[in-house]
Amino acid sequence: MQTGSVVALGFFDGVHLGHGALLTRARQKASQLGCPATVLSFDRHPSALIAGHSVPLINTVEDRQRLMMRYYHIDKVVLAPFHSQMMHMPWQTFVKEYLAATLHPVHIICGHDYHFGYRGEGTPQRLAKLCQEQNWGCDVIDKVSIDGITVSSTYIRSLIGQGKIREANRFLGHPHLLTGQVIPGNRIGATLGFPTANLLLPPGIVCPLPGVYATKVNIQDRSYMAVTNVGTHPTVGPAPQTLAESWILDFSGDLYGKEIQVEFYDFLRQEQTFSSLAALKAAIGRNAEQVRAFFA
Question: Model pTM greater than 0.85?
C-alpha cells in the first residue's frame, strides 16, 4: 500500500470530457498505486482576482465535486483558497511547500494548458521536471477534441447560453447539472394542474437560454422526468429573478426547502408570453408529451 496520493490539478469547471481524460488517468494511477485519487482545485475561478472580473461558471463548487466523484470516482476534492497570497505564490513554492505539505503527492497529473503560480509561470513542462527531481510520477494530458473542436469550458458555456443543451452535453460527457433548494413560488402552476419546484439560479452560474427544457429532477435517490422553464414566467407576471421552474412528472409531494438536482437534456422552445392561462396550460401539456417521448 502506497502512502500519499495521486493528485489531479485544475479548476475543472463543468467537469467535461477534457477534464475526464485527466480524472480517468488519476483514478487509474491511484488504483495501481493503492492510494487515494485526489483533486486539488480552487474555491473560485482565478480570473476573478487576476483579471478583476468573474467568469460565469458552468457549475457551483459543490456540483463540481459531485460530478468528479459520481462520474470519475475521485476519492477526495481539496479546494484551495484563491486569494492574493496564493496569486503571488511562486510556482515552485506552490508545488514544493503548499502541494507537498497538503497532499503528499506520489504522482501528479495536469492538463496540457495548465498554468499556475505567480504570473502563470508554472507550466506542465516545468512541473514535470520538478516532479522528476522530487521522485514523483507525472502525467501531462493532451487536449481532447470532438469533430475538430477542442473540448473547453469556454466553448461549453457558450453552448449553454445559446440553449444548445444536447451539444453541450456531448462535450460535457454528462447532462448539464443545476442543484439548489426549492423556494416558494406564486402557486399559479398548481392551480393549472402543474405544480412546479422553483430554484433560483445560483449567483455566478451561466444561465441557459430562457426557455423550456426536457429535464430529469433527482430527489434523494430517485429520478423523475420533468418540464423545466428557465426564465421569468412572463405570462403570469415577470419574476424579479431568473428561475428554473420544474413540473416534475409522476411526482407529488412537498419539496419546499429540499435540495434537488435538475439535469438538462434537450431544449424544447423559447420562453414566451401567452395570451391566456389556458394557452399556457395547453403549451405545457404539449411540452410534457415531448418530454415523455424524448425519454422513451
Answer: yes
